[in-house]
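The pair is listed for reference:
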Amino acid sequence: MRGLATMLPPAFSLLRSEFNEFLYAPIGEEENDTSLTVLSALARLGLDPWQESARLALLSREKATQSLTAMISTLPNGRWAPSDTCAIAARLIALLPAKSAAALPSLATAQAKYPGSSRLAMLLIAATLGGMIFLTVANLSHPPVPAVPYKAPAAVAPAPPG
């Protein structure tokens, strides 16, 4: 397993993500006195935090701030004033890395770097499904063997002495 971890592209290494400062930054406090981070907020909104961070990083600061402001304003239970959401978003957007096209590699980049991996996965899935279909058909073509009731052996009389 250790060799596999060294082969993964940096986008899959969450420990050294360039978005950590942004994702783990607090938005503010919730009604239950807990701090809400950007990571938690994005996850609650049903978004992948790293992909959304990459998307925001590629936008202009103004557009990214507008987008994040809209997201923050939809969050329930926040102890921040609705008028503060734009300032909160601007503070958080400033934590994103500078705009770069390499924020997250595209699917085409990953496929170019690791050719054949998706083809191998599809082949394994097809083989597994084919095997399952074969076993199902093989079991259906043989009628079930009727159960034969168990009969205890008759008591054997001892042989006469002799």
Q: What stands out?
A: The chain has a mean pLDDT of 79. The beta strands are 26-29, 35-37. The longest strand covers residues 26-29.
